[in-house]
Amino acid sequence: MAEPPLTGGCNCGGVRYEISAPLVSASYCHCKRCQRCTGTAASPEAGVVPGSFRIVSGEELLRAWSAGGESFAEVFCSSCGSLLWSRSPHDAEVISVRLGTFDGDPGIRPGHRQWLESAAPWEPLPDEGLERFQRGVIREGDD
Hints:
Elements: E1 6-9, E2 16-19, E3 25-29, H1 32-38, E4 43-47, E5 53-57, E6 62-65, E7 73-77, E8 83-87, E9 95-98, E10 112-114, E11 131-132
């Protein structure tokens, strides 16, 4: 595990964040929304302990988009477009941070793949031994 605080931010450097506790879980999300937000077949992301995430700078640059209903809001930098994290529609403290936004090694590796029912047909799933779920996995606090 990496030693907190973990730090990260957007591509232009306008948004910076830090996380004061070790990450709780990590996964690859293959849902269609993540594919479209990232332009990739899957989005690697990590769950944050509620209350441990803090925006250090650039809060005024943040924008959020949600498909509505039960969908997590996708939070991004309005200056450079970097997709940074997503947050629960029920509790703004339930956050999943995109692994590519960390400054260094976040100290966690994806342990499963979720939303395989939406997996991109143009990229075969690797056989790396990770647990697989056809739909999403609910983390504690996500309900």
